[in-house]
Design goal:
The chain is 68% helix and 0% strand. It is mostly helical.
Amino acid sequence: MSVLRHPGYGTGIACGFGAGALWGLVFLVPELARGFTPLQLACGRYFFYGLFSAVLLIPRIPVLRGHVSVREWRELFFLSLAGNTVYFILLAAGVQAGGIAMTSIIVGAVPVPVMFAGSVMSARSPEGEAVPFARLVPFAAGLLPALPGFPLLSAGSGDVVHSAGAWLRFALICAGVAVLASMAGNALWNRASRLLPLTLSGQMILSETLSALIYGCLWNGRFLTLSEGLAFVCVVLSVISCVGAHRRSRPAGT
């Protein structure tokens, strides 16, 4: 049967798009808190994320202690540093320097390395369901129009003095994005990643790009420019092509 008819894939795709819609909110944070640096935004967001997570995890610490090894804690630390803190600092710097639309389209290139990594990992696993690497290469050509615009960005100086009201607004924004994007979005993504092969789940990140573009246009009160629209169309076509590759990856009736 078709891979996309696999039990649970519909739920997985819905969870993936839901996660992307919530993650798209993080592109608004640098605009909502424009006077704060990317480093401050990252520290604020992940302070509240860590605080709320600790409250939820405290009752489960005895259980986790017996199931999570020291090596796994080290891997979790590395993933949180690279995939959360450093990523968000660069994202916030990108939004402040180039705007929401440009940054979101560049981030839309993320499914390409995820897709290839998933194909390689699946090839090493006897039960893997990913599409062969060679069949995925042509579909990477779409996320390319965005590559020349990849910026080298600074985190900012952080020498601005803020009022008490500005700090309160900053705290509320960071707490809100921690709950919506980090906690609820990650929960949906964890569900999606368990139901979908990595080569397909990576394509669900398209919903983050789409959501960020919509939020950015609403925030700025404008439509996409021609170049932004063409870049996004290329991203969408590449994802549709990848989904088509999954649809054809199994012969009918198997």
